[in-house]
Specification:
This protein is of the alpha/beta class and 285 residues long. It has 9 helices and 7 strands, in the order H-H-E-H-E-H-E-E-H-E-H-H-E-H-H-E. It has a single domain, classed as 3-Layer(aba) Sandwich (Rossmann fold), CATH 3.40.50.150. The N and C termini lie far apart (37 Å).
Length: 285
């Protein structure tokens, strides 16, 4: 694992622990609030009802009629989406994450729901081999952190059955930006590559041998802070970061500061929340 990859994994391990305990402090009921992704505003135009269970139901409806007996979730977090997908019928699934903390909690939740025999969670990089082949591969707000997107998508192609479906949701730039301070801030704070743009992401899907079936922009449902508010919060976090003595706490501040930089990109109209449904062609043309 590279230095950048280790730093990114450490940040998400810290953020996962914070999110889990914040959920406990809020006294969330068992199985609720497990999603590690952005909240979405209710849709008035046929989009998902919310960024939690509503998003998964919306995605499942898009795949209605397509095979979904074997599901792979790249960046599965606490297993919220994967468990919902395998609860449909007799499906089985695999979740991949680099966080040992997430795996422990996801495994416990699967046992609580009586689904432990139908799913497993692996601690590994997105490009590492996964045994078997799959009808559906999910990647929700995960591949933006991939250092080598082409390698990840080639892996997706390799594990998808012919006719299988790849669902990818990501924060992207509407157009390439060079030298933008907010783009640099997201990358620096999160230890991830600079945000990719829509065209380069779309091209990467094609290079992997996948065919786009549907593309949807959910940006209108993303809650956006005004630029001035996001900047004010960033300044407060900067002061806090400077005086925190422990590295895990500084990582947590970095995670939030990166999110605020992303918020500024949305407020400036430069970022979008894009959904792709792609497939591995059933036969070679």
């Amino acid at each position: 694992m590279t230095t950048d990859a280790r730093a990114m994994a450490a940040m998400y391990e810290t953020l996962s622990r914070w999110q889990w305990w914040r959920r406990r402090w809020a006294r969330a009921r068992a199985g609720e609030g497990l999603e590690l992704r952005k909240r979405l505003l209710p849709s008035t135009q046929g989009g998902p009802a919310d960024g939690g269970p509503g998003l998964d139901r919306w995605l499942q409806a898009k795949l209605d009629g397509r095979p979904a007996a074997r599901v792979l979730d790249l960046g599965c977090g606490f297993g919220a989406s994967l468990l919902r997908w395998i609860e449909r019928g007799d499906a089985v699934g695999v979740g991949v994450t680099q966080s040992a903390f997430q795996i422990a909690r996801a495994t416990a939740e699967a046992r609580r729901r009586g689904l432990a025999a139908r799913c497993r969670f692996l601690r590994q990089d997105f490009t590492a081999p996964v045994d078997g082949d799959f009808d559906v591969v999910l990647a929700v707000e995960a591949l933006g952190h991939a250092l080598d997107l082409d390698s990840v998508l080639q892996h997706v192609h390799a594990v998808l059955r012919r006719g299988g479906t790849f669902v990818w949701i990501e924060d992207l730039l509407r157009h390439p930006l060079s030298g933008d301070l907010d783009v640099a801030e997201v990358a620096r704070r999160w230890g991830s590559p600079p945000l990719r743009d829509v065209v380069s992401a779309r091209d990467a899907i094609g290079r992997a041998g996948l065919r786009i079936v549907e593309e949807t922009d959910l940006s209108a449902q993303v809650p956006i802070l005004p630029v001035a508010s996001a900047l004010a919060r960033s300044r407060r976090l900067g002061r806090l970061h400077a005086c925190l003595p422990l590295r895990p706490l500084r990582r947590l501040v970095d995670a939030f500061a990166g999110g605020l930089a992303l918020q500024r990109l949305y407020a400036r109209g430069l970022a979008c929340y894009r959904v792709w449904v792609s497939e591995r062609p059933a036969a070679v043309a």
